[in-house]
Amino acid sequence: MADVDHRPDGPADPPDPDGRLPVFSVVDIETSGLSTRRHRILQIAVARVDGGVVVDEWSSLVRLRWPWQRVGPRRVHGISRRELRGAPDLASVLTEFAARTDGTVLVAHNMRFDWGFIERAARSNRVELVPPPRVCTLWMSRRLDPDRERSHRLADLCDRYGVGNDRPHDARFDARATAAVLPALLAEHGVTDAHGLAAFYER
Fold first, then answer.
1. Nearest residue to 98 via CA among 16, 90, 34
2. pLDDT for 93-142, tens place per residue?
3. Out of 3.40.50.300, 3.50.50.60, 3.30.420.10, 3.40.250.10, which CATH number does the structure's domain 24-190 have?
4. Angstrom distances, CA of residue 171 to CA of 1, 59, 119, 147, 178
5. Which of the residues 26, 29, 128, 192 has an alpha carbon 20 to 30 A from that of 136?
């Protein structure tokens, strides 16, 4: 996954009248490469977080449009063409993704990368996807380290916050790991409710 600094779109208004933190949908994808134009999504996963707890998980492989298409660096993501043969097509996976994340705040570690692929794929497959409020844990971590003295890769955040991730570069496990570091990052920024989250993105 490319390591790109990016300030995502934060929630403009508190989603709940009582100010509690919103429900987060933590997403991670595995792709055949880094270009949204030339490469494709191979796997997508969502961990739904409510009250700091993962309450639901979903993941899916994505069938290649053509069987000869390359899957990219298998040594990184471990996904083979054979595994993708019986998977749902991309339009079906994106439709399920849209339904599962509807009404939530989307979270990713490097939102520009993940959302860039998802948005382009939805447009190409004519899947209606309303842009949700978005939170980037990479950006949040870098805000804590303005002099860039530490690494902010997901693996290093897991080490820093004592989060286990037995299968890095598997979208399901990376989404789960990102969901686990999110409360720690929110706490370090002093964000305890929706009002604080909105104020954080106005700084």
1. 90
2. 999 999 999 999 999 999 999 999 999 999 999 999 999 999 999 999 99
3. 3.30.420.10
4. 11, 7, 17, 30, 10
5. 128
